[in-house]
Amino acid sequence: MGYEFRVGEQVHCVEPVYCQDKIEFKVDGEVHRVDLESLGSGEYRLTSGCQSRSILMHRDGDRVFLHIDGFDLEIDCENRLDRLRKEARAAHHGGEITAPMPGVVVAVRVEVGESVSDGDPLIVIESMKLQTELAATIAGVVSELPFVEGDNFEKGAVLARLEVPEQDGQK
């Protein structure tokens, strides 16, 4: 499970790598071994190799405030899977379910003509080695599934289309 840390305009992908005696992080693909010792009251000693630094750290939700080497940093931390889910939900425009980023279809959970309820799983995609299940955001009938399992797609591609059936007396 990885995280994205945003410092100003820069985004860094960070993945914890678990080992026995030290903490390792893969930052933008490069492994860093660190020791983090709590000194109390939000103060920590960060050691990497033969370098040691005293840092002050405070976390408020997904935001971390650091004071290190005379600099104040504000870091937005977001779990990549949570971000993909948010983007996927935001990409639903009424009955259109669009791709939040390029990827591949892993599974199709419904068929054209099938009735679905809000929240029913429709399709599973994989992007950046993370699988995300896209669900219906409205109740309706599946009218189009342009991609099948194994198909690649681009960001913004319509992955499924839902139609709300007309009710009696309404057009």
What does this 3D model show about the protein?
- With 171 residues, the chain is mainly β.
- The protein folds into two domains: 3-79, Glycoprotein, Type 4 Pilin; 91-163, Beta Barrel (OB fold (Dihydrolipoamide Acetyltransferase, E2P)), CATH 2.40.50.100.
- 6% of the residues lie in helices and 58% in strands.
- The strands form three sheets. The chain has an eight-stranded antiparallel beta barrel. A five-stranded antiparallel sheet has the order 9-10-17-15-12. Strands 14-13-11-16 form a four-stranded antiparallel sheet, covered by helices on one side.
- The N and C termini lie far apart (47 Å).
Number of helices: 1
Low-confidence stretches: none
Characterize the main sheet.
8 strands, antiparallel, barrel
The structural domain count equals 2
CATH class term of the largest domain? Alpha Beta
SSE inventory with pairings:
Layout: E1 3-7, E2 10-18, E3 23-27, E4 30-40, E5 43-48, E6 51-60, E7 63-68, E8 71-79, H1 80-90, E9 92-93, E10 96-98, E11 103-108, E12 115-116, E13 121-127, E14 130-135, E15 140-144, E16 152-153, E17 158-163
Antiparallel strand pairs: 1-2, 1-8, 2-3, 3-4, 4-5, 5-6, 6-7, 7-8, 9-10, 10-17, 11-13, 11-16, 12-15, 13-14, 15-17
